[in-house]
């Protein structure tokens, strides 16, 4: 992976500590996911998207050892969310990619996986961009094309796929900034400084702050 801040290294370590079968995201995938959440035309609350970060569902067993572990990890995820939002706002956005050090190859595929997961949360809302300016439509089409290349169903000639694969790391950042500029121009709700869910006083029948979708007594209330 490219040189990353200490907080991201800690986030990477904490995500890796979750059960191997939990389906939790890797840092690059999470970065793409959070970016997609932030530039989405609709505001998506953490309670909806946080469970996807660790792959939990309503019927799954709690994946955290205790409330402290959950609160720490949720806090790190929200810190990255706010860092991306700040970078987008200040024009300094830079996606976090994995790097194959053997060939010095940037692996953008995990990032685009995460971005696509975010798009799937509000597929209908992205249609609004089809009525936008040409640059925004081109940026959205480009990101969608990369998801199709990643899935192997782009329908493009191999030469074009290789060319886009090589250019993807540079194109992704530019395209994301264009989408964000459109979102800002529409006076949509700013998505910055979202606090991490609190694990303080929670009623036993209240939703668990970790975002699992379960009642607290059936999730972290068990610890």
Detailed description of the structure:
The chain has helices at 6-16, 27-39, 46-53, 67-90, 109-119, 134-151, 158-185; strands at 98-100, 105-107. The chain is mostly helical. α2 (27-39) packs parallel to α5 and α6 (134-151) crosses α7 (158-185). It has a two-stranded antiparallel sheet. It starts with 5 loop residues before the first helix and ends in a 38-residue tail after the last helix. A hairpin with a 4-residue loop joins β1 and β2. It is globular, with a radius of gyration of 18 Å. It contains seven helices and two strands. The mean pLDDT is 84.
Any key phrases for this structure?
mainly alpha; 3% strand; single chain; 7 helices; 2 strands
Topology of this protein?
Layout: H1 6-16, H2 27-39, H3 46-53, H4 67-90, E1 98-100, E2 105-107, H5 109-119, H6 134-151, H7 158-185
Antiparallel strand pairs: 1-2
Helix pairs in contact: 1-4, 2-4, 2-5, 5-6, 6-7
